[in-house]
Design brief:
Strand order of the largest sheet: 1-20-19-15-14-9-8
Distance between the termini: 37 Å
Shape: globular
Number of strands: 21
Number of helices: 21
Bound molecules: 6-diazenyl-5-OXO-L-norleucine
Structural class: alpha+beta
Helix content: 25-40%
Amino acid sequence: MSRSMFARLFVAALSASALTTGALACGKAAAPPTDVVSSTTGVVVSAHHLASDLGAAALAKGGNAVDAAIATAFGLAVTHPSAGNIGGGGFMIIRLADGTATTIDYREKAPLAATATMYLNKDGTRNEAATDSGWRAPGVPGTVAGLAMAHAKYGKLAWRDLVTPSAELAERGFPLSQALADELNAVMKSIFAPFPSSVAAYGKADGTPWKGGDTLKLPQLARALRVIADSGAAAFYAGWIADSIAAQMRAHKGLITKADLGKYAAVERAPVRGTFNGHEIIGMAPPSSGGTVMISVLNQLEAGGLDGLTRTSARYLHRRAEASRRAFLDRARWLGDPDFNDSIPLTRLLSKDYAATLAAATDSSKATSSLALGSDIVTDRGESPQTTHFSVVDADGNAVSNTYTLESSYGSGVVVAGFLLNNEMGDFNKKPGYTNTGWAIGTPANVIVPEKRMLSSMSPTIVTKDGALRLVTGSPGGRTIPNTTLDVVLGITLFGEDIRTAVDAPRVHHQWMPDTLHLESGAASADVIAALRAMGHAVKEQPARSQGDAHSIMYDAKTRTATAANDKRSADSGARARP
Ligand code: DON
């Protein structure tokens, strides 16, 4: 996520018309009903209730959590166009009821023609526009390959039966909420404006603005989904869809070729694991930084002692900020695609011993300077988020935590063969060697190399207790993601909250650089904010509900009941039980 996206994310709710701009940032808008849904036969919770319906219908047909996740993912590609996708990538954590856990890495890859300096201007400055939008911004998409891998290894129902309902939904169309109508109208004039195929796909046929209640039909997307339903991932990576992507790329000086698509493969990887306050944390390994950052923060908190920590206290917020500062510095210093980096010290970064040394070096009453802490990698001292997460648990207690993305809202803005392509290349370190006190990171681990995956912050997470499923969660929001997900995890594992309270709780964010502590309204009282400032924290107060949404499920192993809470931060979200 670029700095401009991050600004959009936080600026969103400031506007009186947060309903539209908020939606633009991360699908957030007016609050949906504050319901939670409990069931012993399975639940699905996602950013769009119609996609949750498709997942729940897969459960009803006898599918497991993986089947339901696949149906939900394709459903979101239709109903949640800002982030639901087949032209992007992501990560899925699967924990089976027998206790085994695995992950599917379907992160995008750099095209074969990519180079380390391809996003630099002639004068050496970073060309932000080239990764924000257009034909040179996309990485090779991974979503269809990832969902197909999850299905081949862990699904039960026929692939066709999981994809076809989305194709039918795209054909039939679905009613736009006021929030999505407003969002599409805004996007038409901004992100889509330079790209006629995108305006044609998502605009109203007569050119007038969308209204709430209008039906959005996506016939080209339906065609692509039908081909994927009938011919599997091969249709995307070798067949008609690949031909279409490659031809359009050639015509617009983009980089992705049929060779890129033909070479793309998802990877099954072991998750990263940690423990915290009697729970086990199962997180995403590199090329996402999410699990590693989260486990480091939890280890540091535990090392410093958990007694008396309360969500809104200065003591807790200070320690959270300090732990996040250090975990994000290690992210910047070390993390990237493990297939291209032999020297990621993952075992150390995840270890309790290392966290204890970090916690011991943390002043209990004074903020550390991020610059002082990481001055060895900062080369410029001058410079003072669209993604979606869904969670599934089935009747047997199998769980899926999935976060996938186009990077920014609506990705590159480019529609090819009926679907939006991502702008994920912006997650690479664009200027090798250049790390500043703002947003830029230039460390070697995440510099562009052909076929490398760009470092992510996505943090699909599963928490267990005493060997039994406890929590399934995750969030969008670029570098805020591990912190948002931690806010929910800590609600359940430390603060003793129910799932509704943990999902609703105001968010906290620190990411090393910029050296700022972001607090959503309600995260701290005026007195606590004053105390944090007195300790030296640069506190930035953020509007309520401006950080990412976290559609989550809590599980009670005794009664085998899953309780899902959709996040009120996103207008169309919905939790559904198996019908
Ligand atoms: O992989 C990542 O970390 C980012 N591309 C995610 C972007 C994001 O969450 C933007 N959403 N609001």
